[in-house]
Amino acid sequence: AGAWVNYYADPGLLYHRKGKRRQARNVRARKLVLLKNLVTPFRTVVLGSSRVLNLDLTPAERFPHPVFNYSVTAARAEDYLASYRMFVRRQKAAPEIAVVSCEISAFHPTLPQPWEGKTAGAYTDELIAMGALKRGPVWKYAALFSREHLRESLNHLKWIARGKKKGFEHKFRWEASGVGAWLDKLDDAARKSLIARQTRRYPRSGIGLRTFHEPSRERLGYLEQLLIEGGEQGTRFIIFIAPENPSLLAEVLKLGAGHLYVKCADAISRIAAEHGAVFRDWHDPALVGLGEGDFRDIMHLTDEAHGRFAFELEKLLDGLIPENS
After folding, report:
1. Which of 40, 63, 83, 217 is the most buried (most CB within 10 A)?
2. How far, in Å, CA of 258 to CA of 164, rounded?
3. What is the C-alpha separation between 89 and 266, in angstroms, rounded?
4. How far apart are CA 296 and CA 184, in angstroms?
5. Peptide bond before 66: cis, by omega within 30 degrees of 0?
6. How many CB atoms lie within 10 A of CB 281?
7. Long-range CB contacts (< 8 A, 24+ apart) of 282-289?
């Protein structure tokens, strides 16, 4: 029964939908195509998850422009390194500045790479070459019987059902126009209901609190390798832990997992200090003047809040590159 659900829902477009439809719904693959088609040499790159998918540094004029946003959905630490490598490979030049948005789930020891990472062409090949992803010749058929795939399939079907109930259809969670595309269609009551559901479920399903006790050394190693390779190529790094929605932060603290923010921040801070990167622990949104109303849902900032956040990032340029000294 589980295998049939996996085949029917097919959240990773592995079995009966292929080609352009898969690419259109896969942010990792789509960013590769976009980068290949843009000939402008980008001087700043943004790395991270969907939390910064809509982060626009254009108003922050002190950043070296133009800026390419290479954030991907549900990013793990290995995605930061893979995205940076693919960026440098496609552009044939390293960026001057890399802004890396982290979250504690990216350093979970066993939280798997999402399905996008397994079906993103050259990007997937890079993850395999790094040793971050194991994928044999029959992996997608074995996935039919995996619990991990079944959880994603059931969640995928729930999203479709809820969308239809609200009067619109989204066959995939992330629309081509960005993370806020379907969220902006929700009224206040629907948004509050969504946040309440996410607050109950996300700490366990998205962060994996039940099995998360220490940040993964392997995933911290991917972050350090990023700083090593980037430093050799002349890239300077700004790293931060992304602000949490106050409701989510309160729930995580209530569940007794606040120590994970401290452990991840301490580990990232040590790595950043060793390699000359700027680091800020901004998991508490109050530190950057953000509140409940600045979030679209349990984790994504509104466009207006992103605009203000860009100027907080701009302040970190002081002394990082010569013209800002």
Report:
1. 83
2. 36
3. 31
4. 8
5. yes
6. 17
7. 282/240, 282/241, 282/242, 282/243, 283/104, 283/241, 283/242, 283/243, 283/244, 283/249, 284/243, 284/244, 284/249, 285/243, 285/244, 285/245, 285/246, 285/249, 286/246, 287/243, 288/243, 288/312
Tens-place pLDDT, residues 146-186: 777 787 788 778 777 766 655 544 444 444 344 455 566 56
CA distance 37 to 250: 43
Please report where in the chains the tokens 């829902």 appear, as a residue. Answer: 9
**Amino acid letter, 4:** W
Instruction: Specify the DSSP element, H or E, that contains 286.
Output: none
Q: Please identify which residue in the block is written with the tokens 């946040």.
A: 195
The Cα 7–Cα 284 span in angstroms is: 40
> Strand (E) positions, the chain?
44-47, 67-69, 97-102, 236-241, 278-281
Give residue 162's Cα distance to chain centre.
23
- Are 188 and 196 in contact by the 8 Å Cβ rule? The answer is no
Backbone phi and psi for residue 68, each to the nearest 5 degrees, phi listed first? -115, 125
